Structures are given as structure tokens and as C-alpha cells.
Amino acid sequence: xxxxxxxxxxxxxxxxxxxxxxxxxxxxxxxxxxxxxxxxxxxxxxxxxxxxxxxxxxxxxxxxxxxxxxxxxxxxxxxxxxxxxxxxxxxxxxxxxxxxxxxxxxxxxxxxxxxxxxxxxxxxxxxxxxxxxxxxxxxxxxxxxxxxxxxxxxxxxxxxxxxxxxxxxxxxxxxxxxxxxxxxxxxxxxxxxxxxxxxxxxxxxxxxxxxxxxxxxxxxxxxxxxxxxxxxxxxxxxxxxxxxxxxxxxxxxxxxxxxxxxxxxxxxxxxxxxxxxxxxxxxxxxxxxxxxxxxxxxxxxxxxxxxxxxxxxxxxxxxxxxxxxxxxxxxxxxxxxxxxxxxxxx
Length: 346
Prior knowledge:
Elements: H1 2-16, H2 22-43, E1 53-59, E2 62-72, E3 82-88, H3 102-112, E4 115-119, H4 131-151, E5 153-163, H5 165-177, E6 186-190, H6 219-222, H7 224-227, E7 252-258, H8 264-283, E8 296-302, H9 319-339
């Protein structure tokens, strides 16, 4: 039901939500059929699945609101607390539901033995920055606080993942937890925007980028979340993780980067900066290179692939590339968990 409601949400916002500029209203109407198609492809195969449970998470900064989340838990019992993993879906801040990444989350449980919680957040243009970031941070705080009691998961072995803007939100969660007893141990970041100071149409196009983008007419809508905050929060590392202090981010990170994505330049520049800083930070900590406290920033660039390529049908992309990317992702998570005391034995 939630997926159906989300399909028509752009239409409702376009017709009835005050304060949305006209230039965005018609874009929202155009977005609706795209949502119906993408949500149906991803959600319908899971409509009768019992692979996950649905929960509502209270939002600390919005007392009258709650967010919806899916919990994927291993079926077999464990004698010790399992790792905790939080996943955040993409959708340009204007769409998406947790069910879009069900395959990824279910596989994460199988590959690592972790409890996976896939969260949601309110969407632009009705809710511009910092709503989605605050929703994600509030949801993460609730999950961390209740993980052991509700699911037998260990918040001290916390990892994150996110696709597209979900990865941006994951870095925001890390910033909010960096000074707590449960900092993020590792993060998988897929095709993520890290510099929202630059609107979509000004981002440099890499080699292989299509000469005509069929979704270019939605560009103003893609910018709706950040536009209102760009001048006021220009140097805000929450909105623009490329400006974040490396010490507020996960110490272990793997970036999966599409080579023909307009985000390619900013993400690779971000990775290069973090890798240089990690060398300095590790040198300041004696023995850090062999400890769980060391910094390790990795990236994989998939040449010729477009933004969101991992979700495309097999007949469009090289399936071996997708297998390589996913195997690297799950292997990375297993390594982070093992460094923090969890070894899957099932």
C-alpha cells in the first residue's frame, strides 16, 4: 500500500501543496508515470514476500511524524549479537521507497549475517533540505538505540550503505554519530552526490555521457531539495559531504562509481582527498594501519556505466560487471564486520 501511495504522491503535491513553484508542478506530474513503472518493477515481486517486516520509526525533530522502514533479519538464531546495517534508498530526494532495494538488502543479510534496516525519508520539493537528512539521522538514532532490544543487533558494529542520494544521507548519518559511543564502522557508497553546491546542469559531463539525456526536463526537480539552501548553507558539510572533516565520516569506505555519471568528477575528487587525509590520520595513530581504528578509503570505477546502472535490466548492461560490483560490496562489509569482532559462521 505504501508503494501505491508513493506512486501518486507527486500528483497530490503538484495539485495541492502550497509553495511549490509552477516550474516544478508540471515536473511532478511528469514524474508520476515514471514512478509507477519503476516502483512496479521493483516492488511487485516482493508483494507477498515475508523476507522483511515493516516498522514505523518516530522522528525526534518532527514529533507528529514517523518514517517507514523495512527490517531484514536472519532466520537462524545466533549466540551473539549480530552486526547492524542501515541502508538508504536513492531517488534524487524526490522519489523512491525502501522496497526499491529489497534484493540488495536481502542479499546483505545472506552474505553477512547482519540485521539490515532499510529506511525512508520525506521528499522534495514539498520537504527541502534539511528534512531528508534530519529524517535519516533521527531514524538512525532510533535504530541504534533499540537495535539490541528489538533485533539482537549490535549497534557498536554499525555499517551503512546508500544508493545515489541515499549515500549522501548515509554520510550525514555518520556525521551525526561520529562523536557518540556508536560511530559508523564502514560504509558502502554507490553513485553518490557529494557536492550539491553545483546544480545538475552545471556538473561536468564525463566521457561516455549521453549526448541527450532523456530526463533532462526533470533537472529543475532534481535540484529542488538543495536549491533553497544553496546560498544559505553553501559550506554546510551535511548537504555537501565533500566539505566534511574526514574524522566525522566512516573510517572504512568503499565507493562504487559509474564512469559515465555526471557525479563522476566530484566523487573521484572526494575520494582522492579522503585517501590523502587518511594517510595523515593513520600516521598520527601508532599501529593504526593494522587496527579497527585505521582509515581505509577504496573505490571502484566502472567505465561507461550510467548513474543507477546497478539497477538496470541484465539485457542492458554487462551482468559480469554487476556481479563484480556486488561481490566487492558484500566482501567489503564482511571485512569491516570481521575487523570489529563479527565472523559469520552460518
